[in-house]
Amino acid sequence: MTTQRHALRRSRNNRIVAGVCGGLAEFFGVSAFWFRLAFLIALIPGGVPGILVYLVMMIIVPSE
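^ that's the sequence the OP posted. Answer follows.
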């Protein structure tokens, strides 16, 4: 029995801004809603933590 691990990629289909949350959702096998909620919560204390992490992931994680 082998389990195939997908590479972390930004999603082309499940995207709102750059596909980061959709790509994370596909990689971990959960709903993109939870990643979007996490980034939204990270925006609450001034915005910098959420935006910074999202921008770094947008630059580092390749697109599909």
